[in-house]
From TrEMBL:
SUPFAM superfamilies: Acyl-CoA N-acyltransferases (Nat). It holds the Pfam family Acetyltransf_1. InterPro entries: Acyl_CoA_acyltransferase, GNAT_dom, NAT_camello-type. Keywords: Transferase. Signal peptide: none annotated. CDD domains: NAT_SF. Residues 11-169 form the N-acetyltransferase domain. The keyword Repeat does not apply. This is GNAT family N-acetyltransferase. It comes from the Bacteria. Gene3D superfamilies: 3.40.630.30.
């Protein structure tokens, strides 16, 4: 992370706790609203587990991290096995950051941590879905070695996520 020492002490990447459920749900809803990612189109904001992410990501081979800024959750992202697919594929999921957390390298740091976790868990490929509205996210994923693919994988439920990417681990 490229920032001054005082700024780095204000930002912290850490594992999700049960106490974080309401805060990360608010972040996801706020960022979704900012980019017009509505529930009726199958974006993450429609996920029935949105208010219970700690419980979801406490399962084996799942992980989720949050970013704190001055003690407030301002972003997060996770990784889980890709539903309805071969066992070696995981999915990078629910990467959302409020403006206060953007441009500081935190999404890259979190994604790299998730990919390391994926390798530790024995996954051989990592999949993700996003939308063309999130140009900065797509640029990040491309810089991390994700390739664009045409056909969706697994059962994500994200019917309007037209950008699909895959990375060999």
């Amino acid at each position: 992370m490229q920032s001054s020492p005082s700024a780095s002490s204000e930002l912290r990447l850490r594992p999700l706790t049960a106490h974080d459920n309401p805060a990360i749900a608010r972040v996801i809803r706020a960022v979704s609203a900012e980019f017009g990612l509505t529930a009726d189109k199958g974006y993450t904001v429609a996920d029935p587990n949105l208010d219970a992410l700690y419980q979801l990501y406490s399962q084996p081979r799942h992980a989720y991290w949050v970013v704190e800024y001055n003690g407030e959750v301002v972003g997060g992202g996770g990784l889980a096995p890709l539903a309805c697919s071969e066992p070696g594929i995981c999915e990078l999921q629910k990467m959302y950051f409020l403006p206060a957390a953007r441009g500081k390298g935190l999404a890259r740091q979190l994604a790299l941590q998730a990919l390391d976790f994926a390798r530790e868990q024995g996954f051989t490929r990592c999949y993700l879905e996003t939308t063309a509205f999130l140009r900065q996210a797509i640029a990040l994923y491309e810089s991390l070695g994700f390739d664009h693919i045409s056909a969706p994988l697994g059962c994500t439920g994200h019917v309007d996520c037209e950008v699909r990417m895959l990375k060999n681990l």
